[in-house]
Structure formats: structure tokens, C-alpha cells
Please model this.
Amino acid sequence: MPQMSRQDPLIEHHTVDYVPLAERHGKARDLFTLWFSTNIAPLPIVTGAMVAQVFHLNLMWGLLAIALGHLLGGIVIALASAQGPRMGIPQMVQSRGQFGRYGALLIVFFAALIYIGFFISNIVLAGKSIVGIVPSVPVPASILIGALSATAIGVIGYRFIHTLNRIGTWVMGSALLAGFVYIFAHDLPADFLTRGGFNAAGWLATVSLGVIWQISFSPYTSDYSRYLPADIGITRPFIATYLGATLGTILSFAFGLVAALATPEGTEAMVAVKQATGALGPILMVLFLLNIISHNALNLYGAVLSIITSIQTFASRWTPSIKVRVVLSGVILAGCCMVALGASADFIAQFIGLILALLLVLVPWASINLIDFYLIKRGVYDIASIFQADGGVYGRFNLHAIVAYFIGIIVQLPFANTSLYVGPWANLVEGADLSWLVGLVVTCPLYYCLATRGQAQKVRAVKLGYTD
Model:
């Protein structure tokens, strides 16, 4: 098969279809730079500041909880990312091989909702950042500038997103390290090391937040690894993604925590960053703005692929073109801007609460996805069946996956502690949402038992001549 020409257009021409082997390109290290750069942004920094401001941990206990949470959650995102080179399709399309062609629709819907929610929150952040840098620019205009810039990157697609993040890794990584140096090179408050302390609820809540943060990326990780050569294996993509995602988020969360402790108690997170970094603050604000825009392109890209996946479920012969991706990007842009322009002052806090609530539906999906890929099918899927109108060998619905999925959601509800719903056993550890742990512990073995039993029944049926 001919190798891909270097004259291929800049704008990505694939949407949710399979990426042929002849068009594969890139290195595993591209996954490190993508996930490292993506996570050095205001939202994780603001969330890191919550460790001191909301959970009342001191520096030592806060850093330990941040590191442990992300190191645990990073396993999920890395395992999901490593599937991309083997499959050559987006993560949500792959779910058809686990839930069936129509059975995958529900999780695709939730994934699109999460992407759109992230996109809106980030254009609000971008708008605020632009106003903070250039106060004369009206807030609505600032929001539109941030949204249009992210949309342009998302429309261009895969190659451009990776290129920007390769550059961003060096720029943002250096800027964040310079920020740390600046803070510790200047006088710190007397209570910098002693403000807060240890409390089990706050510590477990911080660990849970780290796990949740990483899992929330898992529905679209293989979207950014599916172009890698198929013979790259599992280990290299896993390590590159794991190190990039965990190091980037740990640094950002830690920076938010340090900035919060380096300023008077009660200072708003991004104001704390500006105050703590002095002359470096305005430079960081500009870089953070650029990173918000680059990061937000991933959310738009994922939302578009999810919507296309949903539509194509009912039109198996339809192969979406670049024009479809552009039109859908424009529609999402318009809708999100309308919501962002009317967003309340506490929108970001409300959004974080929504993401924590949506974890109830992500944890069972991630459990089924990983068990199916690594233990049941061992990375061997019939790609042609995934695109067939009747689901091919995977059928329209896989009841084993669907049953395990809904049970995985139900068992979490009594332990849920979110802004949308609080279960009767939510305060076993006050302030900490441990429902995700229950979801993992129940869904993983349940799906494995159902799937392996189903396979054994099929084998027996074939031997007895009950099937073709």
C-alpha cells in the first residue's frame, strides 16, 4: 500500500472511519506532549487551589493526595489511550464492539455532553482571561474570540492539535516551573506550611478528585492515538500517555495549591496565581489563555466525533466528509457561545459539580471498556462489524455489557455525593465521594463473569450445532 504523501492537506479528512495502515504516522512520545501540555491550564490549577481552600489540607498532605489520585486515575486514561493504534478508530466508535451498535448510543450521548460542558466552561475561562489581560475588551467579545480560536484548531484536526501541544509542552512546562521558582524565591506567608492540616474527608476527597479527573478524559483518549502505527504496541503508548497525563495534572494541581497557600486565605485562585508570581504573572496569564484555547479544541473535536458517531449509527453507509465536521463545529460553537454568554458567575464551580456527577456513568463504561479490550477480546476486534448496520458479530445490543453498565451505575447511587444527587450513604467519609470506587469494584468482575460466561455458551452452542 502506498505511504501517505507529505503533500496531504493540513485539514484532517477522517472523521469516525477507520484510519488505514498506510496513513498511520507519529511517535508514542506525541502522546506525552499532548496530555502533558493539555493539563497545564487554569482549570486544573483552580481545582488544585481547592485542596487548600475547600478541603483544608496543608501543603504536605495536599501534595500527597494530589499525586496519589492522579497516579491511580492515570492508569485508566493510559490503558484507554493504548487502544488507539490497535483499533484505528475513535474511542466512542469502539464502544460498539462492547455494547453493540445501538447499545453504545447512551454512552456516546454522555460523552458528547461532557465534551460540550468542558467546551463551554473553557470559553468562559478564556473570556475572563482575555478581560484580565486587556480590560477594555468586552466580556462577550472575549468569549467569542476564545471560542472561535478553539473552533479553528478543532476543525483543522488531529495533526495541528498534536503540533500545538508539542510546542506547548516546552512553553507551558517552562512557564510553570518558572512560576514555582518565583514563588519559592520570594517571601512566603508565615503559615505557608502550617495552614490547614490533615483530615480524612478532605484527603480522600482530593484523591477521588484526582482519579475522577483522569477518568473524565478516557472517553476520547484513543481519538488522539488512532493514527499511530499499528505495530507500535501497547506499552509505549501506555507509558507516554500515563507520564504526560499524570505529570501535567500533578504539576498544575500542585501549582494551584502552592499559589493558594502563598497568598492570603480566601484569595480567588487565579488572582492568587497573579499575586504569587508577581512580574511573571501577566506572562503566565497570556500563556494560560493560549493553552485554554488549544485545550478547548480537544473538547470540540471530541464533541463533533461523538455527534457524528450517533448519526452514523442510523446511517451505516454514510461516510462523513470534512464539510460535515466543519458544519457541526459551527453549530456547536453557536450553541455553546449562547450558553456561555448567559453563564452565571459560579458557572465553573457548578460545572465541576456536574462532571463529578457524570462520573457515575463514566466509571462503569471505563470498567467495561478496559475489561473487554484487555481480558476478553485481548485487543482483537472485527473492525468491519463495528461499521455494519446490524452490528456484525457484535449485534445491535450486547445485553451483558448493558446489564453490567446499569448495575454499575445503580450500585454507585447510595454512595454518591455530588451537587446533583446525594445518596443515603454518601457521608460514610464526610465530604468524599467514593461512589467511583464502588462502581469499579462491582462493574469489573461483573462484566468479566457475564462476558466469559456468554462466550462459553456460544462455544457450546456451536459444538452442539445450534448456530451456524
Summary: The chain is about 65% helix and 0% strand. The two ends are 35 Å apart (CA to CA). Residues 1-7 have pLDDT under 50 and may be disordered. Residues 281-313 form the longest helix (33 residues).
